[in-house]
Amino acid sequence: MIAKHVAMNSVRKSDFAELVKYITDEQEKNERVGYVLVTNCQSDRPDAAILEVINTQGKNTRATSDKTFHLLVSFPSGEEPDESVLKAIEGRLCDGLGYGEHQRVSAVHTDTDNLHIHIAINKIHPTRYTIHDPYYSHKTLGQLCEKLEQEYGLTLVNHKAKNTRSENNATDMEHHAGIESLLGWIKRECYDQIQGAQSWAELHQVMQVNGLSLHERGNGLVITAMDGTTVKASSIGRDYSKNKLESRFGVFEPSPEKMKNDHPAKKYEQKPMRSRANTVELYARYKNELSAITLSRAEELSRAIKLKNRLIEDAKRSGRLKRTAIKLIKGQRIVKKILYAETSKTLKGKISKVNQQYSKERQKIYNKYKRRAWADWLKEKATEGDQEALSALRARLVALGLKGDTVSGTGWQTKQRIQAEQDSITKKGTIIYRVGRTIVRDDGERLKVGRGVTQSGLQTVLIMAVERYGQQIKVNGTSDFKEQIAQAAAAAKLPITFDDTALERRRQEILHSITTKEHDNEQRRANVNRGRINRGGNGGSQFTSTRVIESIGGSRSILPERFTGKPDISRVGRKPPPESQNRLRGLSELGVVRIASRSEVLLPGHVPGHLGQQGTQSDNSLRRDVFGSGIVTAGQAAAEKYIAERENKRLILYDIPKHTHYHYINDGASVFAGTRHVDKQFLALLKNGDEVMVLPIDEATTQRLKRIAVGDTITVTINGSIKTKGRSR
Questions:
Q1: Which 3-state string (H, E, C) describes 353-372?
Q2: Residue 116: inside a domain
Q3: Which of 88, 83, 71 is nearest to 149 (CA)?
Q4: Using 50, 70 and 90 to split pLDDT, how confident is the model at 258?
Q5: Cα distance between residue 551 and residue 636, in whole Å
Q6: 174-190 pLDDT per residue, tens
Q7: Is 425:431 a contact under the CB 8 Å cutoff?
Q8: Can you tell me whether residue 470 is helix, strand or coil?
């Protein structure tokens, strides 16, 4: 963990409001701001906190220094503490710096390879209105970080200061911009030669050989390259300040003109840092675009300036005409004086308006033709789909790859069907994908999922890994993560193999358990379906063979196979008698009047003639079919076809939820997700969590469901009928 004070070089640029807007801005990304915390303010909203802090800072009129303290806390790649730990670390660091009672706004950023926290702190105390500036804050922050790392089990980082501030700034520039700095080039290319110089003449000779010059500026010495880039001599080391060098070599002696060398052995050039990829052509494109941007910006600025000058001249000409007209007017002096004043005021207003318009236009031009650093240019091109730029980002020596809970492979597939939403790309070439609610990071060699991922999210990552690396998958991370991966792979029955023997054995165990459970359930349903129930009746012994048909959701309905002595009559609800063909029948006309239990069915011979007119009420609901024979089989086939089609698309489009046959859970409560028409059969889509269950229904039920909004909760009885307001079917 590294905590750093980001100092503002210019006090006039210090703006608490702009800082808070920056750290809380999503920048059109889904994965940037983790959470925002407002502390010691009356409101929890950042916009209200800004007004409160600005009002507090206005109470202190004596302080002339920066009134805002910008603290940055960064964690190593792969380390992602939970929210409670982050909040505790933020509070402890602010307390340690003496800002425990001060107003502040904190925001966690997750759009880079390193999780980090931005903390905007008001240096002005909210009640005393005094300014607090911690003494040697970097030492205090280093000690606090060491203590917090040990306390929370974080990665230990060396917090001993080894470099000067100039060296640290040069290193930061090289990492963020990707261009070699003059100070870094001197350290790497000619530092040993400079150390070997024993006089001013030898030191100047070393400088000339390397395309450098040493000369005085102010009270010190500076080193200048041939392209004009300058660095202080003391930045190379503490022994190279003017005082230290004069104590060794005597009074400073400037370089003689005869030693000037226009063709040195080597010279400093602003070029990309060393990389594992050849970036010569890319850097040439970058330089050409910079030149074109500079030229276009200069042309538009010139046009804007000419327009501004013309408008100002027009306003002045109008003012001169007005003053001439006033001069010719005969009247009192006081009247003319008032008219002159009004003319002058109008002229100043017009000029001010023209200048404001020009300022806006100039800012618009600068935003349009913004010069980007080398690394930022590569990032922009990679976002646009330039694979060469993406490879250059990933080849940078600072790109060390993803760590933590990752999924990778031993091979590489030539064809990829990944259709995830690309959220952003980091300067290390890590692509951040958004697949539904799952965040996946891809550095080209491995995939990493974010915190709080669900089993469906892990299945998505595994599918992406199969399409990227093949069926041989490698998993790194904690034991809990590996267990979740094994369960996700087994639940989805993915055709993969883990290179870790223990993990592969665990996946097969879970898969065998799931398969055994499914086989037992299928066997149990098959045994029920094969059952035969004997029926008895009045006037003799009648045996009626019945069949128990189990629907997709596990509901059962008992249907007679045939009636003895009743020719040309099929199962109830399947094939009506000839006189009742092609029409709906009332309950009193059915062959079955009441179902008392699964073992008894009353036939027409058992029922007195007046029983139907008495309005007997059945114990069990009776589901009637109006489509003719074979509707259960056709509905199952349609459901199977639709589920197979959605599951095939799910392998390509990861935001499609998992589709299964309907099964009775949660007392039948489900979320209505719409209806479908497949092979002349109607299907109802019922959502339960992350799954969508498919239930065959009839046309009448479909018409009733059209009056229900998608997202409403409906109830499905245990026998498969859908209850809505009013009637159920």
A1: HHHHHHHHHHHHHHHHCCCC
A2: yes
A3: 88
A4: low
A5: 8
A6: 888 888 889 889 888 88
A7: yes
A8: coil
CB neighbours of 413 closer than 8 A, spacing ≥ 6?
Answer: 467, 468, 469, 470
3-state secondary structure of 579: helix
Same domain, 18 and 40: yes
In the three-class reduction of DSSP (H, G, I as helix; E, B as strand; rest coil), residue 399 is classed as: coil
Residue 411 in domain: yes
DSSP annotation of 273 reads P
Residue with tokens 């008992």: 558
Number of domains in the chain: 5
Determine, yes or no, domain membership for 9.
Answer: yes
Would you call 13 helix, strand, or coil by DSSP?
Answer: helix
**Residue 409, strand partner residues:** 473
pLDDT in tens, 200-231: 988 988 888 888 989 898 889 999 998 889 99
Query: pLDDT tens digit string along 665-708?
Result: 777 788 888 888 888 888 999 888 778 888 888 888 888 888 88
Specify whether 622 is located in the same domain as 643: no
Nearest to 427 by CA among 281, 287, 275, 280: 275
Residue 111, phi-psi category: left (phi > 0), alpha (psi -120 to 50), beta (remainder): alpha
Query: Given the structure tokens 């020719």, which residue do they identify?
Result: 567
Q: What is the CATH number of the domain that holds 20?
A: 3.30.930.30
Maximum separation of any 2 CA atoms in the chain, in Å: 135
- pLDDT above 90: residue 518: no
Q: Which residue has the higher pLDDT, 710 or 650?
A: 710
Q: Are residues 61 and 145 in the same domain?
A: yes
Look up residue 6 and give its amino acid: V
Which residues are registered as beta bridge partners of 676? 683
